[in-house]
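Appendix B. One record, verbatim.
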Amino acid sequence: MTTTAIAYIVPKRRHPVLLFVGQQPLGAGGLLFIVLMAVCALFAPWVAPYDPLTVNYTAMLAAPSREHWLGTDSFGRDVLSRIIYGARTALAVGFLASFWGATLGAVVGVVSAYFGGRIDMAIQRVMDVLLSFPIIVLAITVVAILGKNLVLGVDVNLVVAIGLPMVPKVARVVRSSALAIREMPYIDAARTAGFSHTRIIFRHIAPNVTAPYLIMLTAFVAQAILAEASLSFLGLGVTEPTPSWGLMLSGSAADFYQQAPWMIVFPGIAISLAVFSFNLFGDSLRDWLDPKIKL
């Protein structure tokens, strides 16, 4: 059989990214906006038209115009520039909080499912206690107790406070998948071969719960961004003069919302688009990685 004939018989495999775009166009649109937001945040000094911290009292509460596309706030600071720099805060806190919360939750879920018995019961009761608190209430409590701890411009305690409520949710989802994997024949074979618990957990069980872990990680970024904005709005998150979408909605914005509605409208749109994009991408990633839905 010639090479040409074989080429017709064996279909070419499409790149996973192109496959995802073709099967999940809405998720691809959400991912495109996330990438655009990340690029703007990374190159903010070159993308933003003004310094977000520069005060210009001659341009206070200026309406959207050619000079200031989204207007200015009560201090004359450019709203567009502060939104672009605020994306840095939202993405940094969102990704860090989601990563540590989802990772710790995945480890707890796998360990709980693998050992079972009293260990599983004790861990699940702790998770029940954490689940009994709403995410924002638990985050406020942790922030109030820990205070502020800036490392490289990021409030570590804020990241911990937002990520902690995610641990029990991820642990429950990953545990349910790990329970099924624990009963597979190759796990029994690994035990019979004398492999250590650590090797079985991290080499045989953990890789098989990657899909639910990634789905939960992506979904929780949206919640983390919303939680950061909420805490900053309440005065428990990022403080002035650091640009933050939630902080832009509080303070003077509440006092001048009738005279300068753009101070509230545009940061609110930025939060909504970011959360909507991550939710779209997370839902599409779940559908794409779930073999049952694929079938």
